[in-house]
Design brief:
Radius of gyration: 16 Å
Order of helices and strands: EHEEEEHEEE
Oligomer: single chain
Helix content: 10-25%
Number of helices: 2
Distance between the termini: 31 Å
Number of strands: 8
Strand order of the largest sheet: 1-4-3-2
Strand content: 25-35%
Largest sheet: 4 strands, mixed
Length: 145
């Protein structure tokens, strides 16, 4: 088998209006194209992936994400260079995102550089750049924290 990437991730928002407002500013600026924007889902495609935001079931409106419970811990977009990570950080600041950490080098792989943030529902997102083959490079190792 030969997998070519992650096709999509769908997030369920606690506050659909706030989340879709946030992602309408973020995703197109990062080069993704809006392919659906309805009262039920906001969905963007680009860079060989897609991210969608779904309206929650009525029983879960206004709930917030907790990355340490079962489910999604965070999602991460891969940037082509460090400059893009810096540009995304500036955009996140301009739209009022909660920044968990500004662009910084990390221990995950050789050359790992990333920004980590939360959306209005507390779902964590990351944009990173890893040069070359990252943890697949000869002699490299994955160093989880």
């Amino acid at each position: 088998m030969d997998i070519s990437g992650m096709a999509h991730v769908i997030l369920t928002a606690g506050n659909f209006r706030a989340s879709t407002s946030f992602y309408r500013k973020l995703l197109p600026a990062m080069g993704l194209t809006v392919v659906s924007d309805t009262d039920e889902i906001f969905y963007c495609v680009g860079a060989r992936t897609a991210l969608g935001i779904r309206r929650p079931d009525a029983a879960y409106v206004d709930e917030r994400a907790n990355q340490w419970r079962v489910g999604l811990h965070h999602y991460c977009f891969r940037a082509k260079d460090r400059k893009t990570v810096d540009e995304v950080h500036a955009l996140l600041q301009s739209i009022g995102a909660k920044i968990i950490h500004p662009p910084e080098d990390g221990p995950w792989a050789p050359g790992y550089y990333s920004v980590l943030f939360e959306d209005p529902d507390g779902i964590r997102g990351e944009v990173n750049h890893v040069p070359g083959k990252g943890v697949l490079a000869e002699g490299a190792e994955f160093r989880p924290q």
